[in-house]
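Quick one: structure tokens for this chain, please?
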Amino acid sequence: MTPVFFYHLERQPLEAVLPKLLSTSLDRGWRVVVQAGSEERAEALASLLWTYDDESFLPHGTEADGYEDLQPIWLTGQDENPNNANIRFYVDGAEIGEIGGLTRAVIMFD
């Protein structure tokens, strides 16, 4: 059974918290899917990951980038797991889909 964690964004916005959680996930050797409420929001989060820190980089991609099976972090507005992720973050009210087989699922809300 996949453990489900709830992350209440009380003190910092998603844009401040998510990159740190993604970095921690990669440090653990996990592949990641971030499911947003829409494809547009997924693209906005992808843009954030390019600019959130001048001294680090989080390898990621979206449908616009392609090569989903090669992306350590996949951002999407769909219920999909094309990179065989270990952990999935649900943000912006994304609909929870199939979580079986994940190391963990994280539902983030404010």
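The CA atoms of residues 37 and 94 lie 4 Å apart.
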